[in-house]
Automatic annotation (TrEMBL):
Pfam families: CtpB_N-like, PDZ_2, Peptidase_S41
One GO cellular component term noted in the UniProt record for this chain: outer membrane-bounded periplasmic space
UniProt name for this protein: Carboxyl-terminal protease
Catalytic class of the enzyme: hydrolase
Lineage: Bacteria, Bacillati, Chloroflexota, Chloroflexia, Herpetosiphonales
Gene Ontology MF, one: serine-type endopeptidase activity
CDD domains listed in its UniProt record: cpPDZ_CPP-like, Peptidase_S41_CPP
Chain ranges passing through the membrane: 20-42
Organism this protein belongs to: Herpetosiphon aurantiacus (strain ATCC 23779 / DSM 785 / 114-95)
Domain PDZ stretches: 140-199
Length: 472
């Protein structure tokens, strides 16, 4: 893996590994790596990984920005600012009633969490060494578990999306499911009073496990307003990110994440589809939680010859422009009509791609509003192997629309339905009809095909009606 070393000052124990994280979903259940920024490669490969000149420039720039934090030196006014802290620390050691020795390391970790939590940013946080090592294992590709991306939101553990082909997907775990219990243990009790990173770490600890073991996940499905017990047999998680098929004379491409091999996989899929002379493309980014930013630039470079992909906005208001890339054996889809499918599980790099396609009118977006994750984090491995994750910037679309917390609203909002009587579609990618049905069903894919084949647009979603409460 790529690693920065301080250019001056510091020691080997105080130097920190710097990861630039494109704001993907940080919680993972023994699945793929959390989303990373341009030029940082994780895991093993049969060929040497190299960074492009552009990515090296980004790496150098980021290293310079973060160099001061790598040296672990206290600020000049530390004595003044920490006087009250040390007063309380000493009072605890002197006066706190305890029958077992006080764990000062946990006191220190708690203070760090409190410091970061006070910033009011859900994605700035701290991981203790054990949890941090689990994240590093996930980065290296040792993936056995249920295969789902999770997030901590409003005090709950939320399924952002199951991974394509994973045990979670096969067991019908869905984006938006709220994890209520694991093997009967209530999640609310496990994560009570914990900040975001701790809560995710504790939930993941319950859910993950070795291949072949069984776990029962109790979820609350908001779309059906009911609680469901789902039995899952853990397995090795598939890491293929691109799958494709022809649907009539339209090419369909599904991208499940932006991993380091994604644009190579995409090129292979495009080359195969081109042999069938597709008249249009459906590009499915639903439940795609994000990934490497240079992969997002390369993916856009397959649909647009040249153009802005996004801007990075820093704390001082300065903005840096990023453009399309055509690395590798780039296949072109410059001239075909495109529909991009998105939903609430489309996050981070998915939002960069869908936002750019929408802003430049390169594609029509159909589906549901995206997740709204548009920040970038630097992740530092500290001297004791714990980790601090600091948000350093936000992403903007080419038209400089904010993504973070807002998401991308598609051109045509279509709620998902798997009602085969209303939205029948051809079964593709090893899908099979539901019990009693003769075809597969997917309302969003159904309307994408209608739009491209018949130029028919979806009807607007029904407006919710509010029944007034009778006066007393």
């Amino acid at each position: 893996m790529s690693e920065f070393q301080p250019t001056s000052g510091g020691s080997s124990t105080s130097s920190a590994k710097l990861w630039v994280v494109l704001s993907g979903i940080v919680g993972v259940l023994l699945v793929v790596a959390i989303a990373l920024g341009a030029g940082y490669y994780w895991g093993s490969s049969s060929k040497e990984q190299t960074m492009t000149a552009a990515n090296q420039a980004l790496a150098t720039e980021t290293a310079q920005i973060m160099q001061a934090t790598q040296q672990a030196l206290p600020p000049a006014n530390a004595d003044e600012n920490f006087q009250t802290f040390w007063e309380v620390w000493n009072l605890v050691n002197k006066e706190f009633y305890h029958t077992e020795p006080i764990d000062e390391k946990q006191m220190m970790y708690g203070a760090i969490r409190g410091m970061l939590q006070s910033l009011g940013d859900d994605f700035t946080g701290f991981q203790e060494p054990e949890a941090a090592e689990r994240s590093r294992e996930d980065m290296r590709g040792n993936f056995e578990g249920i295969g789902a991306y999770v997030e901590y939101k409003d005090g709950q553990i939320l399924i952002v999306s199951p991974i394509e082909g994973s045990p979670a997907e096969k067991a019908n775990v869905r984006a938006g499911d709220i994890v209520v219990a694991v093997d009967g243990k209530q999640i609310s009790e496990v994560i009570e009073n914990l900040e975001r990173d701790q809560a995710l770490a504790e939930a993941i600890k319950l859910i993950r496990g070795p291949k072949g073991s069984q776990v029962v996940i109790t979820v609350y499905r908001t779309s059906e307003e009911k609680q469901i017990d789902i039995t899952i047999i853990r397995d090795t998680i598939p890491l293929i990110s691109v799958r494709s098929s022809m649907i009539g004379d339209i090419g369909y491409i599904q991208l499940s994440e932006f991993k380091q091999t994604s644009y190579d996989e995409l090129d292979q899929a495009i080359a195969k589809l081109k042999t069938n002379n597709p008249k249009a493309i459906i590009f499915d980014l639903r439940n795609n939680p994000g990934g490497y930013v240079n992969q997002a630039q390369n993916v856009l470079g397959r649909f647009t010859k040249d153009g802005v992909t996004h801007y990075q906005e820093n704390s001082d208001g300065t903005q840096k422009e990023y453009r399309t890339l055509q690395q590798g054996d780039a296949q072109e889809l410059f001239d075909l009509p495109v529909v991009v499918l998105v939903n609430g599980g489309s996050a981070s790099a998915s939002e960069i791609v869908s936002g750019a396609m929408q802003d430049t009118k390169r594609a029509t977006l159909i589906g549901e509003k995206t997740f709204g994750k548009g920040s970038v984090q630097s992740v530092h491995t500290l001297s004791d192997k714990s980790e601090a994750r600091i948000t350093i910037a936000h992403w903007l679309t080419p038209n400089k629309r904010a993504i973070h917390t807002l998401g991308i609203t598609p051109d045509y909002v279509v709620p998902f339905s798997d009602d085969a009587t209303q939205y029948p579609i051809e079964c593709i990618l090893n899908r099979t009809p539901a019990d009693g049905a003769t075809s597969c069903a997917d309302s969003q894919l159904f309307w994408a095909l209608k739009f491209l084949n018949e130029q028919q647009t979806p009807p607007p979603p029904p407006t919710p009606t509010i029944t007034p409460t009778p006066g007393k």
